[in-house]
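A quick word before the example. In earlier lectures we treated sequence and structure as two separate objects. From today on, think of them as two lines of the same record. Here is Cupin written that way.
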Amino acid sequence: MKLFKFDKSNGKQISKFNSDFIMSRITQTTKAAHIGCMHLEENGIVGYHQAVSPQLLLIVSGEGLVRGEQEEYFKVEAGDAVSWNKGEWHETKTDTGLMAIVIESEELSPLMHMA
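And the structure line, produced from the sequence above:
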């Protein structure tokens, strides 16, 4: 499990085309990617299981706890990202609810785009 940030402080100012915004890069793939929005209500949980492919969890709102193969939980909140490798055991849970974007692809490489 690896933890990242994709909040404003990790973005880059974009001014091309007369634009004025900050872009936080996440990932790039050339192979198929499954992208979904996950909604965990109060006391929601994604049970402990093995990732079927490399996976990236992007917390958009709310907060929760994540773990990898160790029993140590890490707090996550909006702007945090977590990646798991294919086959890696993991779990996500929340007391108060959270919304997250989930990206799954055999070709995920967030280390190249996020710090």
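Notice the following. The chain has one domain: 2-112. We will return to this example when we discuss secondary structure assignment.
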